[in-house]
Amino acid sequence: MEDKLLIKIAMEAREKSYSPYSNYKVGAAVYTKSGKVFTGCNIESASFTPTICAERVAVSKCISEGYKDIEKIAVIGSEVKTSFPCGVCRQFMSEFGKDIKVICARSLDSYDVYTLEDLLPNSFGPEDLY
Question: pTM of the full predicted structure?
Answer without folding.
Answer: 0.95
